[in-house]
Every structure is written in structure tokens, then in C-alpha cells.
């Protein structure tokens, strides 16, 4: 049985930490790919651990994908 996309999206969104939700929503308005370094510029040092947790969760759920330069 395959779930409707709206149900899958709701399930993914519910499993995201608050900062990951913020990142995912911000990405809706970004027209070009964004590097990890550029995203890290948004983060204050005191929130680096929360940033890493958010990014890890987004990668785990395949909301974000890692692309390596060749």
C-alpha cells in the first residue's frame, strides 16, 4: 500500500526538529543549489550543534542530498 504524497509529507515534516523545518521552508524560496558552507554562514557558533542535528535529519530523510564536486 502506498500512502498519498500529502500523508508522506506530513509524516516527514512531523519528524523534523524545529530548525530543520525552518531550513526546509527557507529552501522553498531558493532558486539555485546552496552549498553547505553557505548554510553554515547562517549559524551562530552557539547553535552549531543544533545546526548539525537539523542537517543530519534532513539528509537522513532525503530532504537534502549531498552532492560532491568532481
From TrEMBL:
GO terms for biological process: nucleotide-excision repair. GO terms for cellular component: transcription factor TFIIH core complex. Keywords: DNA damage, DNA repair, Nucleus, Transcription, Transcription regulation. It is found in: Nucleus. InterPro entries: TFIIH_p52/Tfb2. One of its GO terms (molecular function) is ATPase activator activity. Component of the general transcription and DNA repair factor IIH (TFIIH) core complex which is involved in general and transcription-coupled nucleotide excision repair (NER) of damaged DNA. Belongs to the TFB2 family. This is RNA polymerase II transcription factor B subunit 2. It comes from Setaria italica (Foxtail millet).
Amino acid at each position: 500500500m502506498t500512502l498519498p504524497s500529502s500523508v508522506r509529507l506530513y509524516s516527514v515534516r512531523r519528524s523534523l526538529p524545529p530548525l530543520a523545518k525552518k531550513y526546509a521552508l527557507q529552501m522553498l524560496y531558493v532558486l539555485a543549489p546552496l552549498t553547505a558552507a553557505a548554510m553554515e554562514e547562517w549559524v551562530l557558533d552557539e547553535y552549531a550543534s543544533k545546526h548539525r542535528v537539523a542537517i543530519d535529519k534532513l539528509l537522513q530523510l532525503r530532504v537534502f542530498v549531498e552532492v560532491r564536486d568532481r
